[in-house]
Amino acid sequence: MRRILIVLLLAILLLPAPHKNKPELFGPGPLLVTARALPLNASDPAVRSVGMLDYLGGWQLRSPHRGFGGISSLLVQGEGQVLALSDSGTLMGFTLHPGRDSRRPFIAPLPVRRQDAAQPWWAWDSEAMAHDPVTGRYWVGFEMLQRICRYAPGFSRVEACRTWPEIEAWPKTGSIESMARLPDGRFLVIAEMGMRGDGSHDTLLFDGDPADSATPSPLHLRYVPPRGYRPTDAVALDDRRLLVLNRRVTLKSLFTATLATIELPVTPRPDDRLWARPIARLAPPLLADNFEGIAVTREGGRTIVWIVSDDNHEFFQRTLLLKFALRSR
After folding, report:
1. CB-based contacts of 232, cutoff 8 Å, min separation 6
2. Where is the Phytase-like domain (predicted)?
3. Relative to the CA of 239, which of 27, 67, 219, 291 has its CA 20 to 30 Å away?
């Protein structure tokens, strides 16, 4: 019975609605984060790989700041400079291994346009984030507001926002959950619950900036996840290949996650299916939680995959940050 109640509670928490645990508004300030190293498998610390991923390290993150946690999207620079975004519009920057060139740890709310100041604090359900390393600009997808906003370098201000009718057609409690910017400037946005009759998820491919008023209507594709899973984040590997993080919650295992690859057709056509090809599954006894964010970096020619969990600001969940090397075969 206790496990059933926990699953029901988690199902409620996964809905982007106001609840008592979301931190109310606060101003920018410093952030203290502690990181406790964890084995991939606590019952067998010798386990160092899962699927096509080699485990390089994992940490449970904690902070006394009441706004810390609830992480839904992730960017990583270098070997551990982390920029995380919570599902309540909160930015968190910190470094796993602080050094001379590390950024100063901070926590701050996203900037808001004057015309949006009346929106309630809990409506800023920011679930996806993308970055252009050339211009320094950022994009954020908001699930409940069903809009995509572009931010100036350093998140100094909001440059533009756009709400698309294609996204408004998705359920508010399951719209923008995954957004990836491809190196060629295209964007891929996947609905968490905007599903077709065959179980595929409505996916939008934008030829350009989805926050720009001049960008033409997107192309509808279909993402086919691993059976029983829903997408929670995506990141590009190159102009055609992406990694998609998928989540499932069940009575038996609670949270599990499957990492999969998808490949865009050379010439995408309406309703093309993007089939998930699973490459790793995180489930007990391996580290497992509500994994919602994924990022990719490069180290010495290797592709490094970072995965972070959303603790929903609940005492029985954890903020986990995992680091893997992606094997080519």
Report:
1. 72, 177, 178, 192, 245, 246, 247, 257, 291, 292, 293
2. 67-313
3. 291
Distance of CA 321 to the CA centre of its chain: 12
Sequence ranges of the domains in the chain = 29-326
- Burial grade of 288 (CB within 10 A; 0-12, 13-18, 19 or more): middle
- pTM confidence score: 0.93
**Residue for token pair 């706004």:** 67
Pairwise CA distance, residues 8 & 136, whole Å: 41
Choose which CATH entry (2.20.25, 2.60.40, 2.30.130, 2.115.10) describes domain 29-326.
Answer: 2.115.10
* Phi and psi, residue 135, nearest 5°: -90, -20
The tokens 């808001």 sit on which residue?
A: 112
- Burial zone of 1 (CB within 10 Å; 0-12 exposed, 13-18 middle, 19+ buried): exposed
Q: Which two tokens stand for residue 327?
A: 């094997």
